[in-house]
Amino acid sequence: MSSNFTPTNPVTLTADLVRCPSVTPKEGGALVLLENCLTASGFSCSRIDRNGVPNLFAKFEGPSDRPAFGFNGHTDVVPTGDESEWSVPPFSGKINGGYLWGRGATDMKSGVAAFVAASIDFVRQSPEAGSVIITVTGDEEANAKDGTIAILDWMREHGETMEACLVGEPTCRSQIGDRIKIGRRGSLNARFKALGKQGHSAYPERSHNAVQAIASLAHRLHHSVLDHGSENFAPSTLAVTNIDTGNTASNVIPGRSEASVNIRFNDNLDSKGIIAWLKKHADEVEKEFNLSIEINVTVTGECFLTPPGNLSDLVAKIVRAKTGQNPELSTSGGTSDARFIKDMCPVVEFGLVGDNMHQTDERVRIDDIHLLKQVYLQILRGFFA
Fold this sequence. Notes:
By secondary structure, this protein is an alpha+beta fold. 31% of the residues lie in helices and 24% in strands.
């Protein structure tokens, strides 16, 4: 390292990003900030905005015969809620008590800042090691249709690829280093609409009660066992998330009622099979109550697994050395943009403790941001060694 080398400060970058009010779908200046920072450090940057969604692709071009390692993250954040309930203004990026405070501090502007800072330092120190790609979206917290998917579509159109990728989402349970994500369950939302015949509650035989049908269907689904888990995943789950009739009269049998369920499924199942299973139950309830049930399904991601191997071994080895933790290889939690990246290359997720993300007074330990940067920097060194 040259004597005039000054490491990039990930805490300063995190604070600058938190000060950008990038509530989905607003860019808020976050991607402009990153683009300026990366361009000044020798990265070629492209904005990939699709259908009003802001995205950024950045690449440091190494030797053509060397592979490319990628990082992925997002700068959009969820709304702050009632700002009067915050101890500090949610977009202040204030540092106090050993923490950096603000919306997105944990999820996941600190992760983005850490891998951007690590990447800048790495290419400044080892420009001949290989190519580093950074992909950042402004559409992870919403429906994600024009976020990382748009970036990957653009990469394929322009002949860009990654040999491996790390997503910097918060992954740890209680201490940084205790968990790495190597897969995620699939997620599916289904909404059922029962269409019966409205009538007077004193004459139920003249009606077809939609709410009773919906309640029966919800009961069936709630008490069903989808599976008993697999080698790498816990059992699949189904949660009834809503039942809505909209009936304010106590003497009217409703002719219409709706219910919603969310299913998180492991690698024993796929969305096609689950949809067929839901339709089977709906058909049986239709016949029992002599009405019709419509189904609308949205699949937000299929289950995927990056089998333990070179990438997870490398990340786990470095996490262990830098944090002193023995990381669990986990597939728990909700969805992430890794579900899209797995179609291009092996992908794992590693980031900070996520215990207060999306909450009032979201905050992250200053020391953890510095440590995360060091982990990412060492992963780059290990990958290209």
